[in-house]
UniProtKB/TrEMBL annotation:
Top-level taxon of the source organism: Bacteria
Pfam families documented for this protein: YceI (PF04264)
Matching PANTHER family: PROTEIN YCEI
Protein known as: YceI family protein
Family: Belongs to the UPF0312 family.
Highest classification ranks of the organism: Bacteria, Bacillati, Actinomycetota, Actinomycetes, Kitasatosporales
Alphabetical list of SUPFAM superfamilies matching this protein: YceI-like
InterPro entries: Lipid/polyisoprenoid-bd_YceI, TTHA0802/YceI-like_sf
Domain Lipid/polyisoprenoid-binding YceI-like: 13-182
C-alpha cells in the first residue's frame, strides 16, 4: 500500500479497468425515491504525475447505449430523443482541463463534460483510496468521487408534471465514479 505522502510512485499512464470500475448516476423519481443506474460500456485513461498532480490528466468516453437502470422500458426511454438522443449522440465524454490536490488524499478534477452535444465544465472531487499489486502482477489504484449536475444544462429536459405537484424526474443528477485503474508498462 502506498502511503499518502508517497504519491510520486503513482506517476504513470493508467487505463480504467471496466470490470472493477463503476460509472453511475442517481436521480430523484416522482419526488419521493431515487433511481440508480450505471453505464456499462466505457473506456478511460489517466496520466498521473504524482509529484505534480496539476500536470495529470483524465479522459473518459462512455457509450450512451450502455445505460442500465435494471428496467428495460426505462432504459429505452433514457436512450430516446426525450433524454440522451443516443442515435445522434452515441457518446458521453469527459476530458480534464485541470487537476488540483485539495488535501492529503483528495483531488479536484475539472474538465469538459459533453452530454447530448452540449459541453459544460464540471469539477469532480476524488478521494485516492490506495494502490495495490493484484494477483496478476498489475499495479492498480483506486479512486472514488461524485458530483451533481443539472441535466437541463445539457439539454436533457424531458419531464412530466405530477398531479400532487413537482415533476417525475429531478433536474439534479449525481454522477458517481468508483475507479480501479491499472498502470501501463
Amino acid at each position: 500500500m502506498t502511503t499518502a505522502n508517497d504519491h510520486a510512485t503513482l506517476t504513470g499512464e493508467y487505463v480504467l479497468d471496466p470490470t472493477h470500475t463503476r460509472i453511475g448516476f442517481v436521480a430523484r423519481h416522482a419526488m419521493v425515491t431515487k433511481v440508480r443506474g450505471a453505464f456499462n460500456d466505457f473506456t478511460g485513461t489517466a496520466r498521473i504525475d504524482g509529484e505534480k498532480p496539476e500536470q495529470s490528466s483524465v479522459e473518459l468516453v462512455i457509450k450512451a447505449e450502455s445505460i442500465d437502470t435494471r428496467n428495460a422500458d426505462r432504459d429505452s426511454h433514457l436512450r430516446s430523443n426525450d433524454f440522451l438522443k443516443m442515435d445522434e449522440y452515441p457518446e458521453i465524454t469527459f476530458r480534464s482541463t485541470g487537476v488540483r490536490q485539495s488535501g492529503e488524499d483528495t483531488f479536484e478534477v475539472t474538465g469538459d463534460l459533453t452530454i447530448k452535444g452540449v459541453t459544460r465544465s464540471v469539477t469532480v472531487p476524488f478521494t485516492y483510496e490506495g494502490q495495490a499489486t493484484d494477483p496478476f502482477g498489475n499495479s492498480r489504484i483506486g479512486l472514488e468521487g461524485s458530483t451533481t449536475i443539472n441535466r437541463q444544462d445539457f439539454g436533457v429536459s424531458w419531464n412530466a408534471a405530477l398531479e400532487t405537484g413537482g415533476f417525475l424526474v429531478s433536474d439534479k443528477v449525481t454522477l458517481e465514479f468508483e475507479v480501479s485503474a491499472v498502470k501501463q508498462g
